[in-house]
TrEMBL record:
Protein name as annotated: N-acetylmuramic acid 6-phosphate etherase
Catalysis: reaction(s): N-acetyl-D-muramate 6-phosphate + H2O = N-acetyl-D-glucosamine 6-phosphate + (R)-lactate
Described purpose of this protein according to its UniProt entry: Specifically catalyzes the cleavage of the D-lactyl ether substituent of MurNAc 6-phosphate, producing GlcNAc 6-phosphate and D-lactate.
Pfam families the UniProt entry points to: GKRP_SIS_N (PF22645)
Amino acid sequence: MLDLSKMSTEQINERTQDLDILPIREALEIMNEEDQKVAIAVKKEIPQIEKAVKAVIETFNNSGRLIYVGAGTSGRLGVLDAVECPPTFGTPPEMVQGLIAGGEEAFVKAIEGAEDSMELGADDLKNIGLNSKDIVVGIAASGRTPYVKGALNYAKEIGCKTVAIACNKNSEIGAIADIAIEVVVGPEVLAGSTRLKAGTAQKLVLNMISTISMVGLGKAYKNLMVDVQLNNIKLQSRAENIVVVATGVDRKIARETLEKAGGSVKLAITMILLNCDREEAEKKLAEANGHIRKIIT
């Protein structure tokens, strides 16, 4: 019989043992105070997160993919981070992928038992043609989810770099992976509900990994998203704003240059800063591996 009692994520939070009778305001204040502990816990793992980011950047530079693997809330968070990369950073959909135990249906409806299969974790990676150039990030609050363990074991077998994100120290997935990120957030306000503090911790770590890895690829100039995709009216307006802030031109020139650049914010900024045409800007960016900063300094 599986014993979770020793895991910090399964402990009883002494502050909320009367949660069912607490006044709403007091319950909310306690939740807020407990949530504030999450960022502090994440900070302690920054050295490990740094290793993960460096490994992801190296993977991307070698034409590899970033694959998140998880079950339940952990899986959904991985999928969420993956699907946000194309519109935010202009990446192809296959570059960052999220796999969840039970498949796409499990994103909106719990698929009971899917997380208990190590074989399924390996099979899902085989189905996307995992190869040694890729990096696999296994996510599990408990740190012992069989689906994630199976995926990490298979990834290591074929020579992939591997990362584990857990919310318990000395986790099983941490023991498998090359890099272990173990953010200990302590007992949940609602005992065992790891969609709360543990889920928040995982989201913060995933934000850091994907964002700073993309920055490392040149997908930001200063703190501006220069590879944002103009897929709707809001993003078109945001793109114009970014060009204005990055170059100091007025909105009319920003809009006209974006049109000349085929909607590429990065190209438009480069054209304005270097006072050149699209062809020259494309050449300069290619020489600098997409880093605007390297061109103008």
